[in-house]
Amino acid sequence: MGALTVTATIDRFPTAGNWTISRGTVTEVEVVTATATMDGKTGRGECRPYARYDEFAEGVVADIEAAAIDMRGDPEADLAKIMSPGAARNALDCALWDLRAKLAGKRVWELAGLAAPGPVITAYSLSLDTPQAMRAKAAENAHRPLLKIKLGGEGDMERIEAVREGAPDAKIIVDANEGWTPESYHELAPALRGLGVTMVEQPLPAWDDGALAEMARSLPVCADEACHDTASLAALKGKYDMINIKLDKTGGLTEALKLKAEAEEMGLGIMVGCMLASSLAMAPAVLVAQGADIVDLDGPLLLAADRDHPLTYDDAGVHPPSPELWG
Known about the structure:
Layout: E1 5-21, E2 24-38, E3 41-47, H1 57-71, H2 87-104, H3 108-111, E4 124-126, H4 131-140, E5 146-150, H5 156-166, E6 171-175, H6 182-194, E7 197-201, E8 221-223, E9 242-245, H7 247-250, H8 253-265, E10 269-272, H9 279-288, E11 294-295, E12 313-314, E13 317-318
């Protein structure tokens, strides 16, 4: 067996128009691509460094390069003992899964002992905007079965009313991105339920979510920023009804599969989500998304450009990746 070589690069993808959430607006996403090569085979993984978690592209590249030294050329190295959960470990973990699959001449789901995956219906996200603009965007996407609406506090009720007018038949979930208070939850939840909204992601700040344990949660609450890996599960008990599994938070496919299994044992619902990134970042998440209650892997649909051999999106949902892309 030859030597393992690991590299990391920064890639950029333009968004399809402005993308706005409660924390700001972007027109381009910056991702880090990890590449692992051995015996003429190459595996790749992608992560999206996220400033909310004090992650930046240059630092993620440095973390991957440092981890490669600690791995000592072993593609089976236990990254959980070398790296902390987060974007850097995600890119490298997924690159190693891809490499191992190519070396074995198998697909990743076979190596992981999973059933062959199929397409899954994914949410389509609407950027935070004025009610008028969100109504128009909802009307454009009214054919989609599930819409995810970014909210930001003041004016949220008007935004949801406008979206419902634009897409009267779509199922709706909302993402508050830590922008609500307990009082706004109590005010908005019954009205949102009346408009057919079925869930809200992270209404309260992750660092100040204790009030959720005391609330009658008439609108189910999903932990996003409050849920990272299996170590974070214990603190969620009694506060949340489901969790959003994102590989950039778990630190890769390995931990994401563990998190899903443990959360299901706790009775939590499962959502599988993503950061805004390319098809390469979504590909391993499609495996985790099998059987999930809610899937939100629409990142490539919100970009103006994507990877070669991108994921297929159609009426059946997002399909598993081709081996040319990943896995």
